[in-house]
């Protein structure tokens, strides 16, 4: 599975289970779409994703079905 396939799957995620499975299947690092910083932590809870970046004070929060707009593999 290449990066394009991973990002297509990320775009079609609509549940926490699908997102967890995608992360489990891949040991790849995620990056921010806008500035390319590496993601340090992603927490999934109640249909929302919270994330933070390595060496940055930036924190993000969005619904899991919109995560593809902010993060990429």
TrEMBL record:
Superkingdom, natural source: Bacteria
Protein name per its UniProtKB record: Uncharacterized protein
Organism: Cytobacillus oceanisediminis
């Amino acid at each position: 599975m290449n990066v394009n396939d991973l990002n297509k799957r990320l775009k079609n995620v609509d549940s926490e289970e699908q997102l967890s499975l995608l992360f489990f299947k891949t040991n790849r690092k995620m990056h921010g779409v806008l500035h390319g910083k590496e993601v340090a932590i992603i927490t999934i809870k109640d249909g929302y994703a919270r994330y933070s970046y390595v060496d940055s004070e930036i924190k993000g929060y969005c619904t899991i079905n919109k995560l593809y707009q902010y993060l990429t593999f």
